[in-house]
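User: Hi! I'm working on a homework problem where we have to compare a predicted structure to a textbook description. Could you give me the structure for the chain below?
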Amino acid sequence: MSTAASQPLDQMKLHEFVMKAVGEMGAAMNAALIVIGDKLGLYKAMSGAGPMTSAELAKKTGTAERYVREWLASQAAGGFITYDAATGKYTLPPEQALALADETSPVFLPGFFEIVAACTKDEAKITDAFRSGKGVGWHEHDHGLFAGTERFFRPNYRAHLVSEWIPALGDTEAKLKAGVKVADVGCGLGTSTILMAQAYPKSTFVGFDYHDGSINMAREAAAKAGVGDRVKFEVAKAKDYPGKGFELVAFFDCLHDMGDPEGAAKHVKESMAPDGAWMIVEPFANDKLEDNLNPIGRVYYAASTMLCTPASLSQEVGLALGAQAGEGRLSKILKAAGFSRVRRAAETPFNIVLEARA
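Assistant: Happy to help. Predicted structure tokens:
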């Protein structure tokens, strides 16, 4: 067997790769530092505050200056904040503040780094799964995954769900305004369900998820949002959730996680009104692997390795579509389940939105 040492080396390529890996080292370590900065309110304290010293930031956030000083240096080295050597002060630029400090922003990112932290904590479980071929259920992951996922997806849903995605579904928006029944399957902590309920006060909504911990948190969120009278959350799986006559069934970033997506699709068809619509929001992906070898695809393939594929393999059938299933594979599954009309209704750089009708 040949080894890397016995093969001719291009020293320039080696240097370029090692420096790329150094960049990866910094990014990997910074994931934890972003979570720390988010939890301690460091980014929020810097947002709009202008130049600050480490002592000023520490005092404002009730933290230890020596730790804050080192944190600031790391953030400046990574380009997350700027440093003025003449004054010894640090600034969080408005562009970074939008992504790191404003939870209402459509590009708010710290939730994703909570997901990264949860994946790191669960590395041993996934390593064992590689050896055994068994799955790791969503509910088996570190609790930070659930909160991080909700915080990461919430800005995207706020930005697109009511203003773009639902209006793209033919007559569905008019029905929701008039008042119909809606099912949100795989609802997680209920953000998508609550957003729809707030936008369409004449309609009623039921969110389903197999994870009872998420459902409990969703119920609390609905009560806090003041929509508890029109929103219910129930523990149920995608293949057996109760109810009939739904004019809209929604799956947000979850169909590819299911062990038997065709079985779930068949149940959706049975639960829908004859003229109802099924909205399937999925991670953006092209149909060919080589067309997904880009920064966005890289994130999705990584998340799929740690989360989506293990989740599917932990369930019956275990089809393991992965987060980069693509419109072609998804459409085949929907049509095999009996949906005659499937189309891409909308898209963003991060999502595709499919509409399926009987």
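For your comparison, note the following. The longest strand covers residues 272-283. Strands lie at 82-84, 89-91, 181-185, 204-209, 231-235, 246-252, 272-283, 341-347, 351-357. Good luck with the assignment!
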